[in-house]
Input
Amino acid sequence: MKRLALVATLVLALCQNLYAERMTLKEYSDLGGDFTLIDHNNQPFQLAKRGKIVMLFFGYLNCPDICPTTLVEMIEVKQLLGANASKVEFVFVTLDPDRDSTENLKTYLANFDPAFIGLRGSKEEIAKVAKQYNVLYRSRELRSALGTTIDHSAAVYMVDTQAQLRFIFPSKSPSQRYIQGLEMMLKGIGKDTPLQKGDSWLQKMMK
Amino acid sequence: MKTLTLALAFGLFAVNLFAADPHEGHSMANPHEGHAMPADPHAGHGMGNLSAGKLSNDASTAVHIEAIHAYPSIKAVPGAVYATFTNTAAVADQLLSITTPAAKTVEIHATSMNKEGVMRMDQLKTLPLPAGQAVKLERGGTHIMLIGLKANLAKDEIIDLTLEFQNAGKLTVKVPVWPLSQHSQDGFHH
Output
């Protein structure tokens, strides 16, 4: 068992190096940045003025599967953070502002954690933020009672208190991965680098 | 050589990723997945263990339903139901349709991810249940979707779900609404 753990650690280290080699920071330096949207209490939410680390992700309420899965991950992350949880905000941006009212965002998110923040804006405003973060999404008509579905990239973005994008994680990352990223940010490690080299596990999103 | 090393490294990396997450780990190692019959008939969530069959003792047309559960949801958005269906018969079966008094429409949907990391959902007309195999519905994969909920679904509520199988017939089961943070895998450790 011990040996397995050792091998796993070595391989992990090796993989991080491989990833690092395949990345260039230049590709990421334009990603992310400040934005202002409206929160679930109808209050303006400006990313750069939060003074907290923000875990950001995008989805839509009619998605009953992967979006709740990510929200459940956020609950776990918050629990694992313990006292540090007060330094982190968990923010869900709807890609479906036509259907997702502020009221629905509020009641929906309260099911997970009343402290989770839901954001919406006009279609144009959402599209602009999605572009900033390279969120790929498009509406698609389903021959289903659901009507429209939204295909979207399901990544979790970690943004520091200066609204600098620092990490991108694929959805369904183990909670410990998020914690590793958050702990680095809480300690201020790599704060001069827009996106920490070797710590993004989502190369394919970035092309 | 370099490719081989790379492939090996990524394979092991995946193993490590799963090992780091207790839930994913169980999912991968779950002996029930892909196998004919659960070793423990009481495995899973107590309320979710039922079998469908034209005759209750007719093993030739039996589908075993395990750990069936829903999650809390608000009325305005669809709810999701997950379960493991094990077709214990010698011939393939399929889940044809589902109804519930709790929602207007029930559909089967599959979530998948393309190589750009984009998640999409597609409706399945039926859920194929190969002979002697377990088909697991879980978060991030295939799920039963309750569209047009008549009321909010709250934790600990129980809803009726009527499932119609091609061979195993019709069966109404009680579906408990689990807390959001409870995973299917949790149910296998009683």
Observations:
- Chain B has one domain: 49-182.
- Residues 49-182 of chain B form a domain with the Immunoglobulin-like fold (CATH 2.60.40.1890).
- Residues 1-48, 54-59 of chain B have pLDDT under 50 and may be disordered.
- The longest strand of chain B covers residues 103-113.
